[in-house]
Design a protein that fits this description.
The chain has 144 residues and is mostly helical.
Length: 144
């Protein structure tokens, strides 16, 4: 049974599904950012400082440590961005779901009204048929 809300309901459902896919993708990006940050920390812990040697070795090690720290900061920023993006998309999903539920409720109410009208119509038709049968029975009794 279609109502005036049926087409809107399908559009809202598609929007909700699209938002859910967006949240899933954002969740995947968040997990990737967490993994990248953890890998950066692991790589930093694997860098060993030279205990002796030439000054160039110390400078090279210092540059390597600095670049790893920059990479960690970058991955921390990426992680923070992914968290904010996920939160934003979850809010959008929540709003889309509320809109979908509103139209779902309105569609349900409209269907209930249509069903009630149909029940009343059928009831009237049955009453009319019963009345016609009763009238016919009475007319047959009078005729005999």
């Amino acid at each position: 049974m279609t109502t005036r809300y049926s087409s809107l309901l399908s559009v809202k459902k598609n929007i909700v599904q699209q938002k859910e896919r967006g949240v899933q993708a954002a969740n995947l990006r968040l997990q990737n950012a967490k993994q990248a940050l953890q890998t950066s920390y692991d790589d930093l812990s694997k860098i060993e400082s030279p205990k002796q040697g030439r000054i160039n070795d110390f400078i090279a090690n210092r540059v390597l440590l600095d670049s790893q720290r920059v990479l960690i900061k970058h991955n921390e920023a990426r992680l923070e961005y992914a968290r904010k993006d996920l939160d934003s998309l979850q809010q959008e999903l929540k709003i889309a779901m509320i809109e979908f539920e509103k139209f779902k409720y309105l569609d349900f109410q409209e269907k209930e009204k249509l069903l009630e009208k149909q029940r009343i119509k059928e009831s009237k038709e049955l009453d009319e048929i019963a009345l016609m049968g009763h009238t016919r029975k009475l007319s047959l009794e009078f005729a005999s």
